[in-house]
Design a protein that fits this description.
It is built from three helices and 13 strands, in the order βααβββββαβββββββ. The chain has 220 residues and is mainly β. It has a single domain, classed as Clam (outer membrane lipoprotein receptor (LolB), chain A), CATH 2.50.20. The chain has a 13-stranded antiparallel beta sheet, with helices on one face. Strand 10 and strand 11 form a beta hairpin. The radius of gyration is 17 Å and the shape is globular. The protein starts with a strand and ends in a 13-residue tail after the last strand.
């Protein structure tokens, strides 16, 4: 099994003056950030069925998929092609991204952005809260990660967007609609520097029994 941990060079760097044009507020309220992290965290075992579409430069892919989630921070993503053949399997255990052994090189979002696709605010453990802003039902959190910047934007307590900038790397997640258990109806991840895009459209979400531990190690 391959385990990919994103290092300082992979997460990259940007001067902490703003993210995608947003200025960092002077206010820093750790209690606000802690509440957001707690309320968006997985709180029960779920199985999510969705359709997906991916763009990578000139190439296009699509199919169906399933995500399995479980507290405290465990998730697995399985993508299938139009005929049901396996396309990609990956698991997240906290900030540890796991792929089956022998998986060809693939460009995946860093764990914090993968969690954001699922509506979860889970900054890396080394992230430092740089600023918070709350007004009219909206909350923004700004984290320094190494020398980069990670921004979360919540509306009505739900994650609406996340942005990551640093050293020539710019990624964002945009979420639309509201489903059960805090999940979005539609999620779009874009890696602007890598010219890639992944779109997920939720079809069904079910509460399930706890999963066996081995599913969090795909390919084992």
């Amino acid at each position: 099994m391959n385990r990919i941990r994103y290092t300082a060079s992979a997460l990259a760097a940007v001067l902490l003056t703003g993210c995608a044009g947003h200025s960092i507020p002077d206010t820093v309220e750790p209690a606000v950030a802690a509440e957001v992290v707690e309320t968006t965290a997985p709180d029960r075992p779920l199985r999510v069925i969705f359709s997906w579409r991916a763009l990578e430069r000139e190439a296009r892919f699509d199919g169906s998929g399933a995500a399995r989630m479980e507290p405290p921070y465990r998730a697995r993503l399985d993508l299938f092609g139009p005929t049901g053949d396996g396309y990609l399997s990956a698991a997240l255990v906290e900030q540890d991204l796991r792929l089956p052994a022998g998986t060809p090189p693939v460009r995946l979002p860093p764990p914090a952005m993968m969690w954001a696709v699922l509506g979860v605010v889970a900054p890396p453990g080394r992230a430092v809260l740089r600023g918070t802003r709350t007004e009219a039902g909206r909350t923004e959190l700004y984290y320094g990660v190494d020398d980069g910047l990670l921004r979360y934007d919540l509306r009505g307590g739900r994650l609406a967007a996340a942005e990551w900038e640093g050293k020539g790397t710019r990624m964002d997640v945009r979420l639309e609609g509201s489903a059960e258990h805090g999940l979005p109806r539609r999620a779009v991840f874009r890696d602007w520097s890598g010219h890639t895009e992944l779109e997920l459209n939720l079809e069904r979400v079910d509460e399930v029994e706890p999963y066996p531990p081995d599913i969090w190690s795909p390919g084992r």
